[in-house]
Amino acid sequence: MVFWSFPPTSKQLKFTLSGVVAGVTLIAAGAYLSFSNIAPQQARAKARKDYIKARLKQLVQD
């Protein structure tokens, strides 16, 4: 398997490395925001579930 026909220049390596660093940074920021906002999302889901359960109980009892 041949990786390159010729070795990359220092400029190409810098661009590749900066692209990888930017990608890792974006993934890390997304993961942080995802985990920091999970509690409000869980609270909304629980409230929705409780409302549906109460509404179904009310409909069944009527």
Describe, in plain words, how this protein is organized in 3D.
- This protein has 62 residues and is an all-alpha fold.
- The protein has 2 helices and no strands.
- The protein has helices at residues 10-36, 38-61.
- The longest helix has 27 residues, at 10-36.
- It starts with 9 loop residues before the first helix and ends with a helix.
Give the topology, please.
Blueprint: H1 10-36, H2 38-61
Protein name: YtxH domain-containing protein
Organism: Solanum pinnatisectum (tansyleaf nightshade)
Keywords: Membrane, Transmembrane, Transmembrane helix
Question: What's the assembly state of these chains?
Answer: single chain
User: Secondary-structure element order, as H and E?
Assistant: HH
What is the tally of helical segments?
2
Give the strand content. Answer: under 5%
What separation lies between the terminal Cα atoms?
73 Å
Q: What value does the average pLDDT take?
A: 91
Helix proportion of residues, in percent? over 70%
> Structural class, please?
mainly alpha
Instruction: Specify the overall morphology.
Output: rod-shaped
Uncertain ranges: none
Estimated radius of gyration: 25 Å
The count of strands amounts to 0
Keywords: Membrane, Transmembrane, Transmembrane helix
Organism: Solanum pinnatisectum (tansyleaf nightshade)
Protein name: YtxH domain-containing protein
Transmembrane segments: 20-39
